[in-house]
Structure formats: structure tokens, C-alpha cells
Amino acid sequence: MTPDASPLANGDGSEDRRRRLAAVLRQVRLLEIRSRHLVTEVLAGQYSSAFRGRGVEFADVREYAPGDDVRTIDWRVTARMDTAYVRRYVEERELTVIFLIDYSASAAFGSRVRTKEELATEVCAVLAMTAVRSNDRVGAVLFTDRVEKFILPKRGKRHALRIIRELLAFQPHGTRTDLAMALDFVNRVLRRRAVVFVVSDWIAADYQQPLEDLARRHDAVAIQLVDARERELPAVGLLTLRDPETGRSRTIDASSRAVAEQLRRRATAFDAALERSLRREGVGHIRLQTDRSYVTSLLSYFQAREHGRRR
Description:
Elements: H1 15-50, E1 55-63, H2 75-81, E2 85-92, E3 96-102, H3 116-133, E4 137-143, E5 147-154, H4 157-169, H5 179-189, E6 195-200, H6 208-217, E7 219-226, E8 238-242, E9 249-253, H7 257-281, E10 284-289, H8 295-310
Parallel strand pairs: 3-4, 3-6, 6-7, 7-10
Antiparallel strand pairs: 1-2, 4-5, 8-9
């Protein structure tokens, strides 16, 4: 795994590779066009309100005026000028935003509008473009059962488009999920506080401690990707299901009410356990479905987050 290594940077000159690159660039352009309206007219203001900078930074001093907070008086300047001066501050807006994206084999599943991988790419593209519009630095970590790619955070639209291109072109080597390892990696490489979007179906084990460490040091948000067919099967009789990460398979009677009820209960229990875990660690939670628009869910989360901040 090499930071900033691009799968398209060292082409072999083949016609297939050129066609693939052209297709990726077309997809990048489509995503840019699709995200432009969302960013400029829908999400930008809500994002800026929901995610603040690290605090405030000193701007300058001015003469004291009645009603100013006496705690802001700059006593050194006051002593030199023989009249009271107060310090002025401005909000430090700049953030570092990291997308930690699960590319295990289960991400390739999608039964209707899009796969979980495609949903992750589109959501991260929109959030990346929104972040750079606020002059935030954006980076990404792509993982399976290993960290497969680390894109260092930088500012600017060009860098955001580069991240989108990488997500569209990426071909993972691993198939399984090691969320704990990926969280540990982010905890090691991020020196300063950042906003970390963890984009996954969250079907993983033993990640509680590194998640706790992440939430203690950073502003963590879990984006849970869900497909309806993982929770409700069509009544088609005998059906063979295969786990894409382990390769194991089993045959069930999809027409059985008992089987359908068991699947529903397991999904409900999984969601409830995940919500409890995230709430306990102070991690934000956005659940997105592959067959539904993600815009409403993002806006609802941003608004709820800003409302909670103001309370």
C-alpha cells in the first residue's frame, strides 16, 4: 500500500486501459455535474453549519467599546496604548475530512438501483465536493481486510475530482472486511483532529475499541449502507445464498414465513445493536439504502446535528 498511488497513473498503453480510463473520466464528469446542484443549492450551507472548525483564532485588536466582554481585553496592548483594547477572534473554519471506505466483496452487492459500492462512491463524491467548497482538506482510505489505498488530504476541487476518479477506478485485492484494522490505521496516521466518515455496511466484528479511540480523538460519522434484499427476500421458493466474503453458501426456503420473519428480526437486532454502539461512543449515524435517495438522509443528519449543537 503506497500513499497517493494511482491505478491510472502508470498506464501500460493498452487499448483496453485507454477505454477504461475514458469511461472513468466520463463517470467523473457525470458525478461532478450531478453533485454541482446538490453542493451549491442544497448541502453546502447545512454542511458548514453542522461541521465547524477546530475553534477560533486571533484576528486583531480594536479599542474597547461599552458592552465588550472584559475578558477579551488585551492587557499588553492596553498598557502600551494607554487605552483599553480588546482581542477579536474569527472562527477557524478549515477542517480535514477523511472518507474511510469499505471495499470488501459485500460492497459489490446491490439488488435494485445501485450497489453499495456505487452508493458509497456517489455519496463520498458529493460530500467531497461540499467539503472543498468550504475550503476543507479532503482525503480517503480505501480498505478491505487490508488498507489498500491512502489518499493524503488536500484542498481544492482538482483534488476532490482526483479522489472521485480513484474511487471509480479502484479494484480491490482483498475480499473480506477488517474494520478494526482500518480504524487503527486512521488513528495512527491522523495527527490532528478530523471529521472521519466511515462508509461501510458495518457487518464486521471486534471494532469497538478502535472505534472508541477514533471517536475520542476525531469527529466520527458512520454511514451505514443497506440493501433491501439483504433484509427481505422475494418469495421464490428454494434459494441459494452465497457470502461474497467467505464463499460459503446455504440454501433456504425464501417462501417460508418463518424464514422471512427470522431475517427481519436479525436485521432489526443488528440495526439496534449498531445504533447503541455508535450512540455510546458518540459517533454520528446515517443509514442509506441503495434504492433510495441519499440527499434527504444527509440533510436530516446535518440539520439534527446543528440543532443538537445549538441546544
